[in-house]
Protein 1
Amino acid sequence: MHGKLAAPLVYPDASRLLIDCNRPPTAPDSMPVLSEDTPIPGNRDLAEELRARRIRDIYDAYHAAIEAVIEARTPAPTALVAVHSFTPVYRGRSRPWHVGLVVAEDRRLADPLFAALRADAALVVGENQPYAPTDGVYHTLERHAGGRGIPAVMIEIRNDQIATPETQEAWASRLAAALADAL
C-alpha cells in the first residue's frame, strides 16, 4: 500500500524494453526493436519461445496482479491510476509539459485532476500529452477499467521533474492530494 493514498501499487518487474505491459502483446511495439533512436538488439528476431515467456512471466503476471487487486476491492469504490514518466526531449522535439494526463471518454477522474494541477500556474499541464489513447498507450486502463465502469486516468510526469528523492516526494504529495480530492 502506498502510504499517502492507502492504495496498492502494481508494477511490472521488468523494463518496458523487454515487453511493454501497457500495450497488447500483439502490438508491433510491444517488444520494440528500436527505442527512439536506440536499437534494442535483444528484441530483433526474437525467438517465439522467448517472446511467449516474456508474455507469460511479465505481461500476464502484471495484468493478473491488477485483476486480483480489483477483484479484492470489489464492490468497494475503485479507481485505476497509471503513473509513468517521459523524457523532456523525444526525437529532437522538446516536450514542454511538466505533467500530462492521458484520458479517454470517461473523464470522471481526469477533470478534477486537471483542475487541481492547473491551479498551480507554474505547471504546464498537457491533455493527452505527451501521449494519447490513440498512441496505443491506454491498453491497461481500457482492459481493466473500461468494461467495469471504473474511473481511470494515466498520469505522465516529465522525468526531470522527479529526478531526486525530494522532487519525487513533492510530486507524490501533489498527486496524492489531487487524487484524494478527485476521488
Note: The longest helix spans residues 48-73.
Protein 2
Amino acid sequence: MAPKIIVSYDDTANDRDALALGRLLAGAGGELALAYVRHFPRSERTDELREQRAADALLARGGLAIGAPEIERHVVVHASTGEGLWELAEREGTDVVVFGSEYRTAQGTVRPGTSASRLLAGGPAAVAIAPAGFRSELAYDIERIGVITEGQDLAPSETALSLAGATGASVVDPAPGPLDLLVIGSCEDAAPGRVDLSALTSYSIDTAGCPVLAVPRAKPISFTAPFLSRA
C-alpha cells in the first residue's frame, strides 16, 4: 500500500517548501494530501462558512500549484496546529507529515518549527522537513540518501532502501559529502510506531542541508512506485 503523505500547508513561503517536498516524496510512490489547521471556530454561522470557504480555497491553490486540482484536502479546527495534525494523522492512518522549516530559517538549512517539533516528540507518523527555499529547486532528484540510526532499529535503513529502490538513489554514509535526503531514526526509548528524537538526531536536523525524514521507531515507510522527479 502506498504511504499516505499529508503536507501541512497555509500558503506561506515556508509551507510552499513543504508542498514541494511532499510532491517529491509522492513521486516516489506516496498518496499526497494537504491539511490546514484553523485555530478558532466562529460563533456566527455566516462567519464560520466564510472561514471554511477561505480555508478550502487556500488548499485548492496548493493543489493547483503542483498540478493536482483534485488533491485530497483536510481543514482541521484546533487551537494548536501540531495537536490538530497529530489527531488528523492518527485518524487518517497517515505515514508522513511534511513541514517547511521555521520562519526566517536561513536559505538551504533545516529548522523544525513549533508544529513539527510537536510531532517529533512522540508523534504517530514520520516527519519530513524541507529546507528553507526548497520551493526554488526547480529540478531536484534524490541521488544520495544518508541514514542516521540509533541502536538496533532497522526502520531508518529500510525506509532509505525503499526510497533508493523507488528513485534509483544510493544509500551512502552521511558523513563524507552532500546528501539529497537524510533519513533519521527515533531514539531507543521511543515507543514502537512513534517518533522521538535524541539530542544527537535532533542536532543532525539542525545541521542538515537537505530534506530530512524522521522515521517512527520500528515502523519503516515503504516507497515502491516508479519515481517522478520535479523537473
Note: Residues 227-231 have pLDDT under 50 and may be disordered.
Protein 3
Amino acid sequence: MKKRTKLNKTMKPHWIWAIALGSAIGWGAFVQPFSWMKTAGPIGVIIGFSIGALLMMLIAVSYGFLIKSFPVSGGEFAYAYISLGRTHAFISGWFLTLGYICIVALNASAVSLMFKYIFPTLIENFSLYTIAGWEVYAMEIIIATLILIVFGYLNLKGTSISGRVQFIFALIMVVGVVLLTVLIGILPSAGLENIKSYFPTNTTALAAIISIVAIAPWAFVGFDVVTQAAEKFDFPAKKGIYVDYFSYFLCSCVI
C-alpha cells in the first residue's frame, strides 16, 4: 500500500480562526437582513437565528471532538471514510465538491454585486443578457473572473499566504462591524422604538420564527473548514476545538 502523503504543518491558530470566520460570514449577512426582517420582523429574526445557532452548535461540538480524534485533512470526507468506508466517503466527497464549487461562484458574483451597488455607472455597461428579470453586464463577468483568478493564485501559492490574507480581511470585517454598531448606536435617533413592529402583521409570530430557523443553517455554514485544515495545524489538534468554538461564537454574534 502506498504511504499517505502528509501535509506540512503551517497554519497558525489565528489564521485558522480567520479562515473559519471568513467562510461562515459572507455577503448574505450584510445584504439579506432587510429581506429577513421583512419576512419575520426584527424580533422574529433574533429568535430564529438564536434557535438556529443552538442547533448548529451540536455540529460545532461534534466537529471539535472529531478534530481532536482525527487531525487529518479532508474534513467530512475523512470522517465518512473512517466510520463508514469508501462508498460513503466517495458520495460525501462529491457532494462537498459540488457544494463548494457553487459557493465559489456565488461569492465571486457577490463581489460584482457589491461593485454594482457602489459604482453603478461603471458596472452597468456592455449589457449581455437578461435572466429572471436580472440584467447581466460584461463588467460584472470581468470583475468576478478577476476575483477568482486572484484568490485562486493566492491559494496555489500556499496556505501561508492564504492564511495571512484571510486574517487581514477578517480583522477588517470585525473592525467594520464594530464601528458600524457603535456609530449607529450613538445616533440621536437610535432607539428600540425603531424596530417596531416586532413581528410581521401578515403572519403569526411562530410562523415568522420558523421561517428564519429554516434558513439558519445556510447562514452559519462555513466553520467546517477548520476540520478540513486540521492536518496543517501548527499547534496541538486539541486547540483546534477552541478555535472552532470561538469562530462559531463570533460568527453567531456577527449574524
Note: The mean pLDDT is 78.
Protein 4
Amino acid sequence: MNVRIEIWSDVVCPWCYIGKRRLETALAGFPHRDEVEVVWRSFQLDPSTPREVTNERVADRLASKYGMSADEARQMQARVTALAAEEGMHWRHDESPVANTIDAHRLIHLAEQQGGTKLQGELKEALLNAYFAEARNVGDRSVLRDVAVGVGLDPARVDEVLASNEFEDAVQADIQQAAAFGATGVPFFVVDRKFGVSGAQPTELFTQVLERAWSEASAN
C-alpha cells in the first residue's frame, strides 16, 4: 500500500523549495515514509519569460512586475531567504537570474521515464539547488545538461530532449491538470487525489495530512 503525493511546482519558485523541505521534514518523522511516493508535476510561474538566456536578476523583474523599487524587491527576497535558512537552506537568491523553465520541466519528465520517481526527485532537488543556492541559470541548456547528467540522466537522451520539443505535451498536460484542480499558484500538493494542500504550509500540517491519508488508505 502506498500514499501518493503529486506536487505541482516550478524550479524558480522560492515557496516551492521551502514547501518541499517542510514536506520532507514531515516525511522524515512519518513511520510509513518508505511507502509514500512523491511525483513532481510541472507548473510555470511565468511561461511568458523569454527562453533566451539573459543576465536580468529576479529582483529587477519583481520590481517591474509589481511596481516596487529594486530595494523593496530585494528586501522581499531577503525575507524569503531568511525563511529558507530556517529550513536549513543557504540561498543566493538575490543573484538568481530570470529564467524560463520549460526545458527544466521537460528534463524532469525525462528523469521519471529513465529512473522513476526516485531519479525525478533527485533532479528536481538538483535544479532547485542550482537556482537558489548556486544562482545558476536553469533556463540555460548547458546548465541544464550539466545538472541532469550530474544526477545520472543519460547524456545522449538529455541532448536529444533539449534539441527537440519532447515532453512539452506532458508539461502542458500537467499545467492543465493543475488548472482543473483549481490551483492558481504553487506549490500545490495533491495526496491520493483526495486531499489538496496549497502553499508552503507548516510541517505540522503536512504531518496531519500524511496521517489522514495513511489512515484512509489502510481502511480500504
Note: Helices lie at 14-28, 58-66, 70-86, 102-132, 141-150, 155-162, 168-181, 203-219.
